Amino acid sequence: MLKKLMAKLGVGAAKVDLQLDRSGYRLGETMTGVVRIEGGNVEQSISDLSAVLMMKAYVKGQEVRKAVQLYPVRSNFTVQPKPAVQEIPFAFELPEGLAMSTPSIQYFLHTKLDVEMALDPTDMDFIQVLPPEPVERVLQALERLDLRQKQDSGKLTPYGQEFSFFPATQLGMPLKELEVIFFSAPGELKLLVELDLATGFLRREVEYKAEIVVPQGLLQPGQEEELSRFLLETIREYANNPSVIPYVSMAAYRQGQYGHHSHRGSGMGGMIGGMAAGFLGGMLLNEMMFGDEEMASEDDMGGDEGDDGGFDFGGFDEEL
């Protein structure tokens, strides 16, 4: 009787330990492993065993945690006293549209063993959300060009995850900063970029927006140098001759014409990190983002002076 009472209070109760086969997975991949349950001092009835993928983000200096997805594992079973051990395999699909792991965005699996009439044993395991291979290749290509990521690179904006770079060496163009949001769709990868250029005698900063469509052939293994060369030539041409930047309707991306809300099942593709931005945006929209401001509706293709905020689609430049 004493052992049962103590187990209800968590002393000598069953223990749960989720064990991942790998520490990191790419967007859309399946996380695999086992949930290991060690029996305690007494037999215990389990009503539910589940894991929740949690996102922890630092937004404007505040830590925010948000549940991303619940993964049921097993329900209504019994854990025998020690030395009994159960290992339950699992396969959890990592959702599309999540932001990649960065110093300011982290993920973990919170595992819970729901014990009837007792304290619930839990476990927490951090997991790295890795970029899709095409995105990883572009990030590596930019690094080869000596474009270094800024300290706050990878932050969330209302439109997806934004990566910020500065040139560590002279690249033959007046580039001060490059901001990139990735848009992926079947058969293509687009970079929505903002180029911050130092122009004129006073070297005033002016922003220009552009879309770069990366040829699929350059995203294949063995094409690393060609990919870097393509990106350098395209960025250099735009930076040195802003008048040649082709028009692209940023409002179309904002309004979802290009599949911005693909995580809801459109299958058209979407912004990398758009799902995560939606999670946080829904919770913090009024309090931390807009205030009394409204998003501008008109397209804005560039030529904005003095704006050092986040990626600006149509005049809105607030990060989450």
Low-confidence segments, given as residue ranges, are: 1-11, 256-268, 285-302, 304-318
CA-based gyration radius: 24 Å
Oligomer state equals single chain
Taking the sheet with the most strands, its summary is: 8 strands, antiparallel
In the residues, how many domains can be counted?
Answer: 2
Portion in beta strands: 35-45%
> Percent range for helical residues?
10-25%
How far is it from the N-terminal to the C-terminal residue, by CA? 53 Å
Shape assignment: elongated
Mean pLDDT level: 80
Total count of strands: 16
The helix/strand series, from N terminus to C terminus, equals: HEEEEEEEEHEEEEEEHHEHE
Helix count, DSSP H or I runs of 4 or more residues: 5
Q: Find the structural class using helix and strand composition.
A: alpha+beta
Kindly describe this structure.
- It is a single chain.
- This protein is α+β, with helices and mostly antiparallel strands and 320 residues long.
- The protein has two domains: 15-130, Sandwich (Immunoglobulin-like); 133-305, no CATH class.
- It is 18% helix and 42% strand.
- It has helices spanning 2-8, 133-144, 224-240, 250-254, 274-290; strands spanning 15-20, 24-26, 30-38, 44-59, 62-79, 85-93, 105-115, 122-130, 147-149, 155-157, 160-167, 175-185, 188-199, 204-214, 270-271, 302-305.
- Strands 9, 10, 11, 12, 13, 14, 15 and 16 form an eight-stranded antiparallel beta sheet that branches. A five-stranded mixed beta sheet has the order 2-8-7-4-5.
- A hairpin with a 4-residue loop joins strand 13 (188-199) and strand 14.
- Helix 2 crosses helix 3.
- The N and C termini lie far apart (53 Å).
